Amino acid sequence: MQTTIFERIINREIPASIVYEDDLTIAILDIHPKSLGHTLVIPKVVSKNLLEMNPSLLGQYFTVVQKVAQAVKESLNAKGCVFLLDGREVEHTHTHIIPRYTDTEVHLADSQSVAYTSSEEMNEYAKKIKAYLAK
After folding, report:
1. Cβ atoms of 65 and 57 closer than 8 Å
2. Residue 50 and residue 102: Cα distance in Å, rounded?
3. Is 96 among the catalytic positions?
4. pLDDT in tens, 42-80
5. Of the residues 38, 94, 96, 107, which is catalytic?
6. What's 30-47 look like in SS3?
């Protein structure tokens, strides 16, 4: 089985903007965000998708998803978050947390990625999320 980009991030083979990490999970900013602050929560134990994830890990994993989502929402003053559980473009279970800054619906299939203006701007978003999680 080929190593995924997420495994390479977990193993520190490639850089990422990490906002949270524990023994089971890592949370990083998405490099192709649907909105600024778009975060991925990734389990460190590899599974192709949720259906293949070890059931004994689900409770702790989704506790982290909720914790990181709360930090994204509160630290970035978002109205809410859109969640997408995925394993398609990268065959490694992960959850997208996409902050929603307006009351309008988000249609992920139609939405284009946005971009940070610089690595400094991306780092500022990461710092805000990390600071909230450190409380």
Report:
1. no
2. 29
3. no
4. 999 999 999 999 999 999 999 999 999 999 999 999 999
5. 94
6. CCCCCCCCCEEEEECCCC
